[in-house]
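Supplementary notes for students who missed Thursday's class. We covered one full example, reproduced here. Read the sequence, then the structure, then the short commentary at the end.
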Amino acid sequence: MIYLFAGDDTKKKHIVYDKFIKAVSSDVTTFFISKNDFSVTETESFYSGAGLFFSKCVVFFEGVFELESAREFILSKLPELASSQNDFVFLESKLGKPIIDDFKKARAELNIFELPKEKKEKFNNFLLANAFGDRDKLHLWVYFRQAVDLGVGMEELIGVLFWKAKDMLLKKSYGKFKEEELKNFAGKISYLLPEARKRGADAEEAFEQFLLEVV
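Structure (token representation):
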């Protein structure tokens, strides 16, 4: 079975998504895969048969459609995923109609959450990135809350901060950080949300706490 959680109404989407995770039986093996650790070979092993140490599993993919190669591969393999004895769950931001139609054809359970057009307001993600670069904890928190209130996805915010840390490392412009601190931040933030959800923790709270602790 395939489950899709997508759309730009981040709050509603994550409320339902987190409830779904908690409803998965503790007896079922679960895997959480982000865009940074997506593997074609591993995905093929999930839909091709039972695992060596489990009879059934639930695989959670979070934000993998941001990678073109991953998106194209998964869309081409939706029939195989649908017929597998394992379940596949996708958490994504807003997706185009053609992609959603592909999920419909695969008889996926669709959970689409869209904000009304009049409520949409763009947030300047670079405000968050610059506050991090300046190691300005107060403004980092303020901009984080503003972004969340405007419905910016956790995955998008993590992507911006990951890029900023990598950019500072590449340019050897460490600002008020030490090089090792930036490397540690970049290494941990990629796995922050999957690990939080695997523990059953609130993803937004875990992200906010992480920012306040490392800056």
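Commentary. The longest helix spans residues 154-170. Strands lie at 2-6, 29-34, 57-62, 87-91, 109-112. If anything here is unclear, bring it to office hours.
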